[in-house]
């Protein structure tokens, strides 16, 4: 295993890999760059390095091999599974300075960007060129493309557009040996054996450091229509989903509970209507042809069946944005409560049975904890947030949540689901990986990791050992 103490001579050698001013050791910098949005593991990096080029990333990796120091690749640090936490003296390789748009190809409709480019900046660059980058989520203003690739980020429009994996045409990566690989090179068709690009998507920086990505763009959608619906019970959610999907081309179908709504309203959002309900849905579709009429017909049919209690449809972009705040503002509104986050998924058809069993388990095992459910239910992804009670020590809270997560993992396994739908495995979900991946799969993942990182310097302790 790599050393965790950084000797003065090693620190001097690290400074020689880049501009010395971009090697940080101030305690405030170590705290800032050494953690992600999780707060369950204390950061303890030995230094931070901010390379500005691929050559500098290579130099840092070769330095790490020589000095046997572990590296933690770091993007926008918006992760929720501890994948970018440096808890044991590692050097954090922060890609913040590698944030440029390198090329736009109007024929191929691709953007090639450095890994540190912020997701929202990529979306804006696409929009300025009359095109659309569809991977979208609440942290888009902070997250970076390299981190999106590392976790195969999803978000609110997976239902229509898929995950990050579906929009990556090529990657440039620096492996754990310091070698640069150019993977797929933006090709649409490439039948030349293993597509190594896809190994790095979702690998959480354990195989190499993503330094550039070529991203596919598409036609911008028509003006969207956004609806918020009030539902009487959980059983109605998937029936409403099926009814709307039969009538309109949904780009998003998100749900949240009354508890989630209470928190986001307290955080500044506006109540969509006076009717109160235990469950709510936000759905979005393109306003083309008779789509709005068809959506209203679906609403009326569901209401007649008792599946809907109320609803509202946005009449402007500003109203659409306000309605989306009810869903996208939930995570921020819960943050002061130090939530323990379960990010799980099952096949869409399995959602009702899984949700019923999981709700029973959660109610039984967390009788005194507030639990907030929300998520991308249209693609089978549920977020279960357990809020820390006041007065309960954080370590005791995490321990209890870990105990229940192990039980939840058994439910997930029975339903053929995943312990991590879009947040990655990192440090926090690794103990439960066996509920999603079999022993043979995990062994193969360990073997693949050893090939690309034979010195075991990249993001140690994350994903698989």
Automatic annotation (TrEMBL):
Protein name: FAD-binding oxidoreductase
Family (UniProt): Belongs to the FAD-binding oxidoreductase/transferase type 4 family.
Named cofactor requirement(s): FAD
Swiss-Prot/TrEMBL GO biological process terms: respiratory electron transport chain
Gene3D superfamilies: 3.30.465.10, 3.30.70.2190, 3.30.70.2740, Vanillyl-alcohol Oxidase, Chain A, domain 4
GO molecular function: FAD binding; oxidoreductase activity
Domain FAD-binding PCMH-type positions: 41-220
Keywords recorded for this protein, A-Z: FAD, Flavoprotein, Oxidoreductase
One of the Pfam families matching this protein, by short name: FAD-oxidase_C
InterPro entries associated with the record: FAD-bd_oxidored_4_C, FAD-bd_PCMH, FAD-bd_PCMH-like_sf, FAD-bd_PCMH_sub2, FAD-linked_Oxase-like_C, FAD-oxidored/transferase_4, Oxid_FAD_bind_N, Vanillyl_alc_oxidase_C-sub2
Source organism superkingdom: Bacteria
């Amino acid at each position: 295993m790599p050393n965790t103490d950084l000797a003065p001579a090693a620190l001097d050698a690290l400074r020689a890999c880049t501009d010395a001013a971009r090697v940080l050791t101030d305690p405030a910098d170590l705290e800032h760059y050494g953690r992600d949005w999780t707060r369950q593991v204390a950061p303890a990096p030995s230094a931070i390095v901010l390379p500005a080029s691929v050559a500098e990333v290579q130099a840092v990796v070769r330095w790490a091999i020589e000095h046997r120091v572990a590296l933690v690749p770091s993007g926008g640090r918006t992760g929720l599974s501890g994948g970018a936490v440096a808890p044991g003296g590692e050097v954090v390789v922060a890609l913040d300075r590698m944030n440029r748009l390198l090329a736009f190809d109007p024929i191929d409709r691709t953007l090639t960007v450095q890994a540190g480019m912020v997701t929202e900046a990529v979306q804006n660059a696409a929009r300025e060129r009359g095109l659309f980058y569809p991977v979208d989520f609440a942290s888009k203003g902070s997250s970076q493309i390299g981190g999106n690739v590392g976790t195969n980020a999803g978000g609110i429009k997976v239902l229509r557009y898929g995950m990050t994996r579906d929009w990556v045409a090529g990657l440039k990566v620096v492996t754990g040996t310091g070698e640069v690989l150019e993977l797929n090179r933006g090709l649409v068709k490439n039948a030349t054996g293993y597509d190594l690009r896809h190994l790095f998507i979702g690998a959480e920086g354990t195989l190499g450091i993503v330094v550039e990505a070529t991203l596919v763009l598409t036609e911008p959608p028509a003006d969207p229509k956004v609806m918020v619906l009030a539902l009487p019970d959980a059983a109605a959610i998937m029936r409403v989903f099926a009814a709307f999907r039969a009538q309109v081309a949904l780009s998003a179908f998100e749900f949240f509970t009354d508890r989630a709504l209470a928190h986001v309203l307290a955080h500044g959002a506006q109540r969509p209507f006076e009717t109160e309900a235990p469950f709510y849905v936000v759905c979005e579709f393109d306003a083309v042809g008779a789509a709005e009429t068809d959506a209203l017909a679906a609403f009326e049919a569901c209401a007649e069946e008792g599946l809907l209690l109320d609803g509202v449809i946005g009449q402007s972009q500003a109203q659409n944005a306000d309605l989306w705040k009810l869903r996208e503002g939930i995570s921020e509104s819960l943050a002061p409560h130090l939530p323990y986050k379960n990010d799980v998924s099952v096949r869409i058809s399995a959602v009702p049975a899984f949700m019923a069993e999981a709700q029973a388990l959660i109610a039984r095992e967390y009788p005194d904890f507030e639990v907030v459910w929300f998520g991308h239910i249209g693609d089978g992804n549920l977020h279960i947030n357990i809020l820390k009670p006041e007065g309960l020590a954080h370590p005791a809270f995490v321990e209890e949540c870990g105990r229940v997560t192990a039980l939840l993992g058994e439910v997930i396994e029975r339903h053929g689901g995943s312990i991590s739908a879009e947040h990655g495995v990192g440090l926090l979900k690794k103990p439960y990986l066996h509920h999603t991946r079999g022993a043979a799969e995990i062994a193969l993942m360990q073997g693949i990791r050893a090939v690309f990182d034979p010195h075991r310097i990249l993001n140690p302790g994350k994903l698989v050992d």
